[in-house]
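hey so i finally got around to running the thing on that chain from the lab meeting. sorry it took forever, my laptop kept dying and i had to restart like 3 times. anyway pasting the input first so we r on the same page abt which one it is
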Amino acid sequence: MLEALHYEFIQNAILAGVLTGIVCGALGSLVVVNRIVFISGGIAHAAYGGIGLAVYLGIPFLAGTMGFTVAVAVIMALVVIKMKHRADTIIGALWAVGMAIGIILTDLTPGYNVDLISYLFGSILTVSRSDLYQMSLLCSIILFLVIFFYNDFLALSYDSEFAQLRGVPVKILYVLLMILIAVSIVMVIRVVGMILVIALLTIPPFIAEKYAESLGTMMFYSAGLAIAFSMAGIALSYGFNLTSGAAIILVSGVAFFLSFLIGRKSSGRT
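ok and heres what got predicted. didnt touch it at all, straight out
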């Protein structure tokens, strides 16, 4: 594997894995502590509508997918705020409609675009320098906003009612969180794919939560785990000619079950 480090596509993949890990650590922790995994999964799958839109209109992937996914995320956030008792049903419908739009637009596009497969299952080994520049910009924006609103996100995550009493604009902050999740999903799609992205957003924070003493520490540990899983997945993908996104998630899944078993054994002893 060491000789592979001389190849540019491996170097790009490693950098993409680091950027992805940082974003997944920061926002994945907020997804887990706020218990919005289902909503995040809905946003991830609805993003296929944006991919189909970008392909059909012949516009850059980032522009089409980002606009569509952020719009869906805002709608889902407003649904949760306004109709919380029916949110799961409406989110499920938006999830399905988003995917259907993507499939139909893809069908209407002349010819078959092979690159669509990479958006479904990820292809970190094909990330280019231009992709890295875009990922770096998005990662910087996400990190800045998470750090800037850290105390507000902390209050929202653990006691939203108290946060509202303190004057924190809870509803606006919740919509912002959904937008950031949508942006992070679009960014990570190139790495692990639309179908697998939610696993990388949730597995590292789930493991990290057991050992973290604060939300900030949880984000830090989660980022480290996500980066480690990405590096191990890249090695497996390169060494055994496997689909990169699936390899990364397989490593994450093994770590998840090991941490779960270790946690059960530890609790059993006490």
